[in-house]
Write a structure and sequence with these properties.
One of its GO terms (cellular component) is outer membrane-bounded periplasmic space. The protein is an alpha+beta fold. The chain folds into three domains: 91 residues, PDZ domain (Pdz3 Domain, Roll), CATH 2.30.42.10; 219 residues, 2-enoyl-CoA Hydratase, Chain A, domain 1 (Alpha-Beta Complex); 102 residues, no CATH class. 35% of the residues lie in helices and 21% in strands. It contains 18 helices and 21 strands. Strands 3, 4, 5, 6, 7 and 8 form a six-stranded antiparallel sheet that branches. A six-stranded mixed sheet has the order 10-11-12-15-16-21, sandwiched between helices. Helix 6 runs parallel beside helix 7, helix 14 runs antiparallel to helix 16 and helix 16 packs antiparallel against helix 17.
Length: 521
């Protein structure tokens, strides 16, 4: 196995925060040399001197970017600058769609290999199949060379209704052919799945709070209610947040009329209180919210509103601890910032923002810090300030100052010394390995039922040993003590690529410690 493979699942990651505006027009009037205006003019004059007088050629645009970034680093960890290229990706992710051909792919051995076309998307309608290679787009070669992501995306994306001529190689038939595909809007799902865990228990997984999240959530909620759901499990583990407004809309579906959802205060001390309306459609059934150390921002607003109103039960591990609100501000050149403009408080009055004296990498590296303290395995190892006690509606004690502490603690699933195993099994390494295995004999795998597939994966050492070699070739180390769990994750990924997302989650959630805990209640 080659070690220079590029792992490229087409999942556009979402940034947690982004930056601040800098700059004003140069002015030679001496009267401005006082206070804040003088400092602004000083920066502009410095850039002007460098541009006109410095001995070497310097890109002053890059200096401005660095200056803006450095200024923001001295504010708080969530006020951050985002450049033009990154802003395009972030905007697409948060608006919930992009215009393209609609495929999930890997850059596999220097070739664009289709994992799966998005259902009912342009490529699916045109006949693209899993395993196909895209060799060119409008006669621009996409294989056999080091092609940047920016170039690749620019060739596959475009305007709604525009045509792109693709040359395809289908390995299963060993044939090349051309297809004209009409680009269209392709959804980027923020709600991964909605399904039933039991006859009465429904489950909805939210990966971020984007523009379309409430609509996606409402669709899944309605479907589950139609199927007789009485208990709802909302999973916001590893959800770093997003639009506060979308979280509020979702909470409104769950809380009774006039229940307080969240309070924000700005620089001037102005308070804005947001209450639930009478439009909620699931105000009576049981609610569980799953959180972990990577649940942040809007996810914590959701968990805090449910907890403080005694509307449901929070299950998992202490959340990240982000109680700051950002607003996006364009800089006029295609870049933008998200500047912290307010603090938010849960209904009981808690600020769950953790201290940020250390604004560097350590602030965000919660997993390592909590692992070292033992908090991932024992609830009483969590550092909670006893002085920051608050009361829920029914008088239960809750704490502020560093995330949402769950009502029911569930330790990290891996045993001590096996943390890397679970992290790897939930990473792109597994999906890449499975794609490679499928690619060796896709005809055979396409003939197998789920039951036959499970037997194929679990009944021999073939796939387990091949996966161990895959991890070794990738330069990683992990424990293989949890063999059954590893094989279950491998089988689930085979099912996802061959069948559908719902089947994948049905398999994985049966092994999920938090789900097991919910079903015990």
């Amino acid at each position: 196995m080659k070690t220079n493979r590029i792992y490229l699942p087409i999942i556009i990651a979402v940034s947690v925060a982004i930056g601040l505006l800098l700059g004003s027009k140069l002015n030679s009037n001496a009267s401005i040399y006082s206070g804040k205006n003088a400092n602004k003019n000083k920066l502009n004059k410095l850039l002007d001197y460098i541009e006109r007088e410095y001995v070497d050629a310097v890109n002053t645009d890059s200096i401005v970017d660095l200056t803006v970034t450095k200024i923001l680093e001295n504010l708080d960890p969530h006020s951050v600058y985002i450049d033009q290229k990154e802003l395009v990706a972030v905007s697409e992710s948060m608006q919930g769609d992009f215009v393209g051909i609609g495929v999930n792919f890997y850059l596999y051995n220097d070739t664009v290999a289709v994992i799966k076309p998005i259902k009912n998307g342009p490529s699916d309608k045109a006949g693209i199949l899993a395993g196909d290679r895209i060799l060119s787009a409008n006669n621009y070669t996409l294989f056999g060379k080091q092609i940047s992501n920016d170039t690749l995306f620019s060739k596959l994306k475009g305007e709604v209704g525009s045509l792109v001529n693709l040359e395809i190689y289908r390995k299963a038939t060993n044939k090349k052919f051309k297809l004209n595909i009409t680009r269209d809007r392709v959804p980027i799902k923020s709600v991964d799945i909605g399904l039933k865990l039991t006859d009465k228990v429904g489950y909805i997984k939210i990966n971020r709070f984007a523009e379309t999240t409430y609509d996606e959530f409402k669709k899944e909620l309605s479907a589950l209610q139609t199927k007789g759901m009485e208990t709802l499990v909302i999973d916001v583990r590893d959800n770093g947040g997003g639009y506060l407004e979308r979280a509020v809309q979702i909470i409104d579906e769950l809380l009774p009329n006039k229940a307080l959802i969240v309070k924000t205060t700005n620089k001037q001390g102005k308070e804005t209180l947001t209450y639930a309306t009478e439009n909620g459609t699931f105000e009576k059934g049981k609610v569980f919210v799953l959180i972990n150390e990577n649940s942040a921002s809007a996810s914590e607003i959701l968990a805090g509103a449910i907890q403080d109103n005694d509307r449901g039960t929070i299950v998992g591990r202490r959340s990240f601890g982000k109680g700051l609100v950002q607003r996006e501000m364009p800089l006029g050149d295609g870049s933008a910032i998200r500047l912290t403009v307010a603090r938010y408080y849960t209904p009981s009055g808690r600020s769950i923002q953790k201290p940020y004296e250390d604004k560097a990498e350590n602030y965000f590296n919660e997993f390592e810090k909590r692992f070292e303290s033992g908090e991932l395995y024992e609830s009483d190892k969590a550092k909670i300030a006893d002085s920051l006690k608050f009361k829920t509606k029914k008088g239960r004690t809750v704490y502020g100052g560093g995330g949402i502490t769950p009502d029911i603690f569930v330790p990290f699933e891996a045993k001590h010394g096996e943390e890397a195993t679970m992290l790897i099994m939930q990473s792109g390494l597994v999906s890449y390995f499975v794609f490679e295995q499928l690619d060796t004999n896709r005809k055979l795998f396409n003939l197998l039922s789920k039951t036959q597939l499970e037997k194929e994966i679990k009944s021999s050492e073939k796939y387990f040993e091949a996966f161990k070699q895959h991890i070794t070739d990738s330069g990683l180390l992990m424990s293989y003590a949890q063999k059954d769990k590893i094989l279950t994750y491998l089988y689930a990924e085979f099912v996802r690529q061959l069948f559908d997302e719902a089947s994948y989650y049905s398999i994985i959630l049966k092994e999920d410690a938090m789900i097991k805990k919910v079903l015990e209640q």
